[in-house]
Write a structure and sequence with these properties.
336 residues; alpha/beta; Rossmann fold; N-(1-d-carboxylethyl)-l-norvaline Dehydrogenase, domain 2; 8-stranded mixed sheet; 4-stranded mixed sheet; 14 helices; 12 strands; 43% helix; 18% strand; globular
């Protein structure tokens, strides 16, 4: 396939490199000029325990993108979705489409800009980090799921899936992409909680002192999803049914144990959220990922006090007003 990958960082860089290696015609777009220059000069390198290889590819900054494209994978941070979708829209072919390969409910944002019929949903859970210009760490495999927003199985979806199998052999098509996206929101809320500390994902989720916090966060998201008539889907040890409000505690703990086991196997020990805060010193996706949970919950009469407080804690860390430390989780525990 001929694919334009908009955002050549952790997610887009890994997927794109595999597709290039498999023979697909891939063009990268990234706003980081140094990253674009490195790709054009020396190629895009994937490193880590899964694979080590370098591919030759063309990369452009957004203002220099040439031509129109049939498929665009949007792989930018959630808070940059609207601006990126507006910029890429002129580069969509007449029958082209955009695939949201992101965290959150960005399909809604993209659909408002390019049209619902030109938007495909995607869910990914592999571990990757941008290390330096031209170099991406692929730390651990994870679920890859594709779906039309209306649940249909279309020729374009089948073709996209065939291409994605060259990246992840276990990639699947679903008729419930919203279920996966809401499932990831619940897991994402738990990941944001781990990111207010300096501990690894696995160590945080394994700490019995805060099991109640992680369970309660998952339950808040599940309440909103259920009220929104969504059937959440599980993945990689995360079982959304384990965080339904009436689920026995031992079932929730079993899912946390499964999530710990999954994360222990990855070379990516901390979340991208933690990396944004601790390493890259930049704003996170908290408003774009967790904000809609609070907003949709409020519109449906579902209270989300832990999620709202977690957003405040992340903002305080972003602003330099709060250090990253395990005791931050006590702020959430007080609300239980």
């Amino acid at each position: 396939m001929r694919i334009l990958i908009w955002g050549a960082g952790a997610i887009g860089g890994v997927i794109g490199a595999y597709l290039v290696r498999a023979g697909h015609e891939i063009t990268f777009v990234d706003r980081a000029a140094a990253h674009v220059d490195a790709i054009n000069r020396a190629g895009l390198s994937i490193t880590g325990p899964i694979d080590e290889f370098t591919v030759t590819a063309r990369a452009y900054t957004p203002e220099d993108v040439p031509g129109a494209h049939d498929a665009i994978l949007l792989c930018v941070k959630a808070q940059d979705t609207a601006a990126a979708a507006q910029t890429l829209a002129p580069h969509l072919a007449a029958d082209g489409y955009v695939v949201s390969v992101q965290n959150g409910l960005n399909e809604l944002v993209i659909a408002d800009i390019v049209g619902r019929e030109r938007t495909i949903g995607a869910f990914v859970n592999f571990g990757a980090d941008y290390l330096e210009p031209g170099v991406i760490l692929y730390g651990g495999r994870g679920a890859v799921v594709l779906g039309e927003l209306d649940g249909a199985t279309t020729p374009r979806l089948v073709a996209l899936h065939q291409a994605m199998l060259d990246f992840e052999p276990n990639a699947v098509i679903t008729d419930n992409i919203w279920g996966y996206l809401w499932g990831k929101l619940a897991y994402g809320a738990q990941l944001f909680a781990t990111a207010v500390t300096n501990d690894s994902i696995a160590d945080c989720l394994a700490d019995p002192a805060y099991h109640a916090v992680y369970i309660a966060l998952g339950q808040e998201v599940m309440r909103v999803a259920t009220a929104n008539h969504v059937t959440p889907q599980g993945f990689n040890g995360f079982d959304p049914l384990a965080f339904m409000p009436d689920t026995p505690r031992e079932v929730s703990l079993r899912s946390l144990d499964d999530m710990v086991a999954f994360n222990r196997k990855s070379a990516k020990t901390h979340s991208g959220i933690w990396r944004d805060l601790a390493v890259r010193k930049r704003r996170t996706e908290v408003d774009a990922q967790l904000g809609p949970i609070v907003e949709i919950g409020a519109s449906l009469g579902v209270a989300t006090p832990l999620t709202a407080r977690l957003i405040e804690l992340i903002h305080a860390i972003e602003d330099g007003a709060l250090p990253m430390q395990t005791s931050n989780l006590d702020e959430l525990a007080r609300l239980l």
